[in-house]
Write a structure and sequence with these properties.
single chain, mainly alpha, globular
C-alpha cells in the first residue's frame, strides 16, 4: 500500500525516519519520493540509491522497480547484491 501524499513533506519526514531504521519498504518509498520530488527536492541519484538499498534487503516492490523501470537483468541484480 502506498503512503498518503496529502502532505508530502510530512510524509517524506516520517518515511525517512523509518528508512533510517532499516525498514526496506520505507527505503523503497523514500526512493520514489526522491525520484518524483514528493516533499523533497528531486534527485534521481538518491532515489535509485534508496531503491537499490531496499532491493538488496529483498523488498519485492524495489526488485520489481529494478526489473521494470531500470531494466536490470537478473545477472545485473545479482552483481549488485540483490537476492533474486
Amino acid at each position: 500500500m502506498a503512503p498518503n501524499l496529502i502532505n508530502p513533506k510530512k510524509s517524506f519526514y516520517w518515511m525517512e525516519k523509518a528508512a533510517n531504521k532499516n525498514n526496506a519498504q520505507a527505503r523503497y518509498f523514500l526512493g520514489t519520493y526522491y525520484i518524483k520530488g514528493y516533499g523533497v527536492a528531486e534527485s534521481k541519484t538518491k532515489g535509485i540509491s534508496s531503491i537499490l538499498s531496499s532491493a538488496e534487503r529483498g523488498n519485492t516492490d524495489a526488485i520489481n522497480f529494478c526489473t521494470n523501470e531500470l531494466k536490470m537483468s537478473a545477472e545485473q541484480m545479482r552483481e549488485c547484491g540483490i537476492p533474486i
